[in-house]
Design goal:
Blueprint lengths: L8 H13 L4 E3 L9 H16 L5 E3 L4 E3 L11 E3 L3 H15 L3
Helix pairs in contact: 1-2, 2-3
Length: about 100
């Protein structure tokens, strides 16, 4: 829910910071979560954490291979696709690294 554009970004960042302060150090995302908005949003929050706590203070995981259409209203089975080719997985991982600002 915090990854959705309707949820205020500053509040979403605050949730990430508070979770980290309380010992959460694993952040698990997928590139298509929250209409493709969650990864970039988490990336911005983690970028700030990285400045104050260092990159070693958290772990990020993501997923690749399945793509879900952006619109939930018109969702059909045909809007969910999979592509597990090495090239696609590599592209998706590189995009996730970019979105998450995690070098």
């Amino acid at each position: 829910f915090w990854g959705n554009k309707q949820f205020p970004e500053t509040r979403a960042h605050r949730l990430v910071y508070r979770a980290h302060e309380r010992g959460v150090n694993l952040f698990d995302k997928g590139h298509n979560y929250s209409g493709y908005n969650a990864e970039p949003r988490l990336g911005k929050a983690l970028h700030e954490l990285k400045k104050s706590h260092g990159r070693d203070s958290f772990i990020v995981s993501t997923k690749a291979g399945t793509t879900v259409a952006r619109s939930r209203i018109l969702r059909t089975d045909k809007q969910v696709t999979t592509n597990f080719t090495p090239d696609y997985i590599e592209q998706t991982c590189l995009k996730s690294i970019q979105n998450l600002l995690c070098d």
